[in-house]
Design a protein that fits this description.
This protein is an alpha+beta fold and about 210 residues long. The protein is built from six helices and six strands. The chain folds into two domains: about 150 residues, Beta-Lactamase (2-Layer Sandwich); about 40 residues. Helix 1 runs antiparallel to helix 2 and helix 1 packs parallel to helix 4.
């Protein structure tokens, strides 16, 4: 059973989490975004919460707490996450059934709040919070989530720079892979597949396995 915490308690815990976070250049155990979400998810009655980063003209999920979502990336302007990533404006949706921009990922969700992670005029990412209760985000939640977004903006431009860099590097690798497949002749792609298939058959034969299995 979750122990409901005041906004002050949650903010103190998040501040401590970010201050104690150590930069991980090699992808080690440091997961500050996950840790921040853990504090929010356990301390407040949220159904789902996620942190997204702006990469190019998309908003990509980096961490979440709650059910596994089918939505990972939103193009600018798509859904409330994509709209907030593009415009950098807080949006509170008391009833998602009355919001034409809402992009449903969970049937249980009744209300949503989307807050930009913003430094001055630069939108770096988005915090998306969803509730299974209508009109769930009162004044305390609004102040809390806006404050957390400011804390994350400061963190991501200082000790957490490596998180933003990794997201961009992943995007570049994905782009290069897509570009290679796009420009590679179909004949070459077929040859690569045939070669991989033959290599697997040889491996199975050497191991005494059925090559056709």
């Amino acid at each position: 059973m979750k122990r409901y915490q005041s906004a002050r308690e949650v903010l103190a815990a998040i501040e401590k989490t970010l201050e104690g976070s150590k930069a991980s250049k090699t992808g080690g155990k440091a997961r500050p975004l996950d840790d921040v979400l853990e504090v929010l998810y356990e301390g407040r009655h949220y159904f789902w919460i996620g942190i997204y980063l702006v990469v190019g003209r998309e908003v990509r999920r980096q961490a979440f707490r709650g059910p596994v979502p089918p939505c990972h990336t939103f193009a600018f302007g798509k859904g409330n996450v994509g709209a907030t990533g593009e415009r950098g404006v807080v949006k509170v949706i008391p009833d998602v059934t009355e919001d034409p921009t809402y992009s449903m990922c969970f049937r249980e969700v009744k209300s949503e709040m989307v807050v930009p992670i913003k430094l001055v005029t630069r939108t770096m990412g988005v915090i998306d919070v969803e509730s299974d209760r209508a009109n769930a985000f009162g004044p305390e939640d609004r102040v809390l989530l806006k404050t957390v977004a400011k804390m994350l903006a400061r963190f991501l431009t200082s000790k957490g720079k490596y998180i933003v860099r990794k997201a961009r590097e992943a995007d570049m690798r994905a782009g290069k892979t897509a570009g290679k497949e796009k420009h590679q002749p179909a004949s070459e792609r077929n040859l690569e597949k045939m070669s991989a298939s033959r290599s697997e058959s040889v491996r199975k034969a050497v191991a005494g396995e059925n090559p056709r299995a």
